[in-house]
Structures are given as C-alpha cells and as structure tokens.
C-alpha cells in the first residue's frame, strides 16, 4: 500500500521530545527522500532513495533496530526528568507516547512503501530489513532500568576521554576482561569490592594503584569497567594536565543515574607542578565530596607521586620535613591504596603458562620457561606485560 508521503514528512517534522533524531543521517536522508518524491522526478527519487539506504547500511541492515537504538540512546527532556526521579507533566507524557508511535511507524517502512511509483526500477534497488518492536512498551522498560543503561552517549558507549574540555566517547575502547588477566587476584579483588560499593550507592573510596611498570594496574581498571558496564559503570579518562577540569566534570555528572570512574593513568608530578595542588584539593575529604556517583582511580609507578632527587631533599627550605611530608600527603588522600609488585620467577612463569594455555601454543613447558626467562632478561625484567608480549611473539612465530 502506498504511504502518504506528506503525512509521514509532517509527522517526522512534528517531533519535539525526540527532535535530536532528525539530525541522524538515515532520518535526515529519509526526510529528503520524502521531499524529492513529491516532485516526481524519477532520477532524483532513485538518487534520494539510494542515499537513504546507504545511510542505513552504514549502521545496520535492519532499519527498525536502527531507529529503536536512536530512541533508546537519545538524550532529551523526558529521560532527564525520569533519570533524576522528578515528576513528569502529563502533557509531556502524552507527547512522548505520540512521538514513540510516530517513530515506530517510521521504523516499519518497507522499501516497497517508498518506491511504489517507480516499480520498474524496484528489482535493481537495494532493500533493508524491518521487525516489529513496541516502542512505547520497550521505552518504559528502559526507563525502569535507567540506572543500568543511562541515556545519550552514555547509553551507547562506556569509556570516554576529555577533548577540548568536553567529555567524548572512546569509540574503540580496550576490550580486556577480568578473565583475560592472570594472578594478582587479591589486588584486583580489593578494587572489585570497592567498585561494587560504588555501584550499590554505599560509601566507597578513591583508589591509588601503584607499583612496578607492566604489572597490570591500568588493565585492571579497564577490565573492571568492561566487566560491570552492564550494571551502569562508566569510565572517563583524565590526563594529568586536565585535572583542573575535574570539578566541572563532576558537575556535569551530578544528575546522571550512572556511576563513573575518573581514571588518571601513570600519575606523577614534578616540583612546583600546579596539577599537584589541583588534585590534592579535589581529593580533600571523602569520596562523597565528588558526589555519590563518582570515584577517582589513579595508577602510578611512584608511591609518593612526586618525583624527587637528592637535591630536592636537601634544598634550602627551612622546614625541610614539611616539604617532604607535602610530597607524601597526596597519596595518603586516596582511601584505598593497592600495591602491584613485580612478580618473582614462579609467578611470572605461572602467568606465561596460563597465557600459553589460553592460546593453545602446545610448546613443552621446560622450553617455554627457558625462552620466557630469556625474554624477561632482555626486556626490563619479569612482569605480566613481558609475559603477554612474549606469548604474542611466540604465537606470531617470532
């Protein structure tokens, strides 16, 4: 049955709550197709149709699923009110239901609905798939689970960084899981328990993971976020030179229903570093000062975070002890400190064996041990990183 083009175009243009969706490539090109089809110029109709299908193919073969994701990931006035557990005006509720029905109708458009008046070209034009989805019912279910899924870009992505002062998604994040990591279970369990406390809304601590390079500190943080992203956990990576922006970031996240880890990797300071004072001020007091949905996790190869030399210890400061205590005070402000020591020979080889087994290398254990030890000697000693790099080279035949 031929669809009323003008009716569909007007319905799309009437969107208010979900107006952001009109800027999505496939929807904006669908609008363009509706406009062109009214003019009836076959060449332009075919071109507009093909551009619309092209935009679908970039994201999905199923147009219904594509529109559904747009709806679920959209940040709008309604979802913000629901996330903040504020009262929603009945007028807004009615408008929401109406727009969801419009988007559901749009999502079920078949190719035959669009090219009915140019049938002789139908066999050569590309198609897409559709499916039945109850947008109203599914949206209400999502609102009930808003604490797990979030909205806007936080529903689509789970790792972020700061770019030009804005929180931006990391489109291809590290996919490492806890099951991929070997040994250091006691260390990781401490951070897992702290993270679960954050997710449950009870008191948790800012955490400092320090120890030798390559021992899995950063991997642990990212693997935990990957493990619990389905329960509403997100990560925002903050560079040292961006520390002063943390108060603004916390303000932006204050009404967000999700839980956030502000991740500072490889943290260290030089003397007279302005970032030192900035982070110290942020960490003042308990994590509640950050809001009940934010915690800071930092990694460092230095226990006291401040790079020191003998000259700085001598110096000409009259109150030398006070100066040294100042360099140590920042690390003490993290409520949870977890030490990742460089592994001994037995632990290192155990990591190598575990990784080799996962990769099904089939190399005799004695031969593997000799080569792994030789690799560690040539590459900055034993560590989980060295073990992983060694196994990758063996797997590649190098």
How much helicity do the residues have? Answer: 40-55%
Number of helices: 19
- Overall average pLDDT: 86
Quick one: how many beta strands?
A: 7
Task: Describe the main β-sheet briefly.
Answer: 7 strands, mixed
Structure description:
The protein is of the alpha/beta class. The protein contains 19 helices and 7 strands. A 7-stranded mixed β-sheet has the order 2-1-4-5-6-3-7. The protein is globular, with a radius of gyration of 27 Å. The relative contact order is 0.09.
Strands, helices and their partners?
Layout: H1 5-13, H2 25-39, H3 42-57, H4 63-73, H5 77-83, H6 90-107, H7 111-114, H8 135-144, H9 146-149, H10 153-156, E1 159-163, E2 166-169, H11 185-200, E3 207-211, H12 217-228, E4 233-237, H13 246-253, E5 259-264, H14 274-282, E6 294-300, H15 310-314, H16 320-332, E7 336-340, H17 345-358, H18 365-378, H19 384-395
Parallel strand pairs: 1-4, 3-6, 3-7, 4-5, 5-6
Antiparallel strand pairs: 1-2
Helix pairs in contact: 1-2, 2-3, 4-6, 17-18, 17-19
């Amino acid at each position: 049955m031929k669809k009323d083009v003008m009716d569909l175009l007007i319905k799309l243009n009437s969107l208010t709550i979900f107006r952001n969706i009109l800027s999505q490539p496939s929807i904006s090109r669908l609008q363009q197709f509706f406009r062109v089809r009214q003019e009836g110029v076959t060449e332009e109709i075919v071109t507009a149709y093909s551009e619309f299908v092209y935009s679908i193919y970039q994201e999905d073969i199923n147009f219904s699923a594509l529109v559904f994701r747009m709806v679920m990931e959209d940040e709008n006035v309604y979802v913000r009110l629901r996330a903040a557990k504020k009262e929603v005006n009945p007028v807004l509720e009615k408008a929401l239901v109406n727009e969801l029905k419009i988007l559901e109708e749009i999502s079920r458009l078949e190719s035959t609905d669009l090219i009915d008046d140019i049938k002789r070209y139908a066999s050569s034009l590309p198609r897409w798939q559709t499916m039945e989805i109850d947008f109203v019912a599914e949206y209400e279910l999502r609102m009930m689970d808003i604490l797990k899924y979030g909205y806007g870009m936080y529903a689509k992505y789970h790792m972020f960084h700061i770019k030009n002062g804005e929180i931006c998604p990391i489109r291809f994040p590290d996919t490492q899981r806890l099951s991929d990591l070997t040994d250091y279970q006691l260390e990781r369990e401490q951070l897992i328990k702290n993270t679960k406390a954050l997710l449950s809304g009870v008191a948790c601590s800012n955490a400092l993971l320090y120890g030798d390079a390559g021992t899995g500190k950063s991997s642990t943080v990212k693997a935990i976020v990957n493990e619990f992203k389905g329960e509403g956990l997100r990560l925002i990576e903050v560079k040292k030179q961006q520390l002063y922006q943390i108060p603004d970031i916390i303000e932006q996240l204050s009404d967000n229903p999700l839980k956030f880890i502000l991740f500072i990797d490889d943290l260290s300071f030089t003397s007279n570093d302005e970032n030192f004072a900035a982070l110290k001020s942020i960490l003042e007091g308990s994590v509640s000062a950050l809001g009940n949905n934010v915690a800071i996790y930092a990694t460092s190869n230095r226990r006291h975070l401040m790079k020191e030399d003998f000259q700085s210890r001598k110096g000409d400061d009259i109150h030398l002890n006070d100066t040294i205590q100042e360099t140590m005070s920042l690390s003490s402000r993290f409520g949870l400190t977890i030490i990742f020591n460089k592994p001994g020979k037995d632990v290192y080889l155990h990591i190598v064996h575990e990784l080799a087994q996962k990769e099904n290398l089939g190399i005799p254990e004695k031969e593997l041990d000799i080569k792994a030890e030789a690799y560690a000697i040539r590459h900055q000693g034993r560590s989980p990183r060295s073990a992983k790099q060694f196994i990758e080279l063996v797997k590649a035949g190098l």
